[in-house]
Amino acid sequence: MWRDLRPVGRHPDSGGYRRYAWTGADTDCRAWFRDQATARGMTYECDRNGNQWAWLGDPAAGDAVVTGSHLDSVPDGGAFDGPLGVVSSFAAVDELRARGAAPTRPLAVVNFGDEEGARFGLACVGSRLTSGALTPRDAGRLRDADGVSLPQAMERAGHDPQAIGADPERLARIGAFVELHVEQGRALDLTGDPVGVASAIWPHGRWRFDFHGEANHAGTTRLEDRRDPMLTYANTVLAARKRARLAGALATFGKVAVEPNGVNAIPSLVRGWLDSRAADEATLTALVEAVERAARERGDRDGVGVHVERESFTPVVEFQHALRDRVATLLTGDPDRPAPVLPTGAGHDAGILSAAVPTAMLFVRNPTGVSHSPAENAAEDDCLAGVGALTDVLEGLACR
Ligand SMILES: [Zn+2]
Q1: Domain range holding 254?
Q2: Which of the listed residues 93, 223, 327, 385 has the most CB atoms within 10 Å of its CB?
Q3: Do 131 and 120 touch, CB atoms closer than 8 A?
Q4: What is the Å distance from ligand 1's center to 198 Cα?
Q5: Residue 294 and residue 324 in one domain
């Protein structure tokens, strides 16, 4: 399976993957998925929102066990983010058969469409549409960098955009969803475990900080006469880092815009975007408030006005405890010694679905923690341990 997927959408210079929703590379990934389903004698279907399903048993019977992930990528993404979950799911179906385990519940492998949001700017479009978290009307407004709308892109790729929308009947047939994913961090590397179970997805959000100063000549304006928003911004970045460290949370200024953006001009405006995530909402709120306070205090000293706008917020996703604990126990076969349970700061389709379906996630160790990069990696032994773990979970949930 990896051999087939390896060249699809791979950029020759960066070595990274550019598999954006409804592009040629995406079409190739979808054809691969369909071939994998057919080769195993599974019933293939593409749902109204462009998510692909491969079924063992009759979906209409209900209480299905579903596993899978996504095949699309971020710009120059790694090989594992997404595909590891889909490849491992098909491999787990093979392993179930090798074990002679016969599912007593319908079992499906799924490929959720447009998970990364690399093309249209919104993540998890396939699962959001299915769950109703994204309306067809709002989906119709999404456009890529060339001005192509999501419905146009779907239509060009041969999918009927008129059909998109909430699919509660489909969700009602799912009894459990388990997503395996490469870890996007080093928690398992630090504990020394090849596979772990997700406890929760941290609440996270984006805040825009506007620092208003006064443009002036870099060569003639005395330091004491300046109202330099870059200074306030720089101090705010440092404050965010310090506050995040003290709170055991994360805060990142990863995007900045400067006006007039001239090398010999004191800026009139610096706009910085803060991405912040924490284990709970109270910590996150307190952290962002502390950063905002630090920005205003420094702004007062610099003669710079500070305006903060929250642009997005996603509350905590707590995976269902009963399923999570069952999965953690199934992994080791020993209730007294369950697999490690860890939180993550990254969003996933499993997080979207968890509002409607009991959901769990497995993580496979990432030795460097690097993700969303061509350098992303997972050892072959760990990937095989992931397949073994997923098979144990599917056997425990669907075959007994
Ligand atoms: Zn992913």
Answers
A1: 204-314
A2: 327
A3: no
A4: 14
A5: no
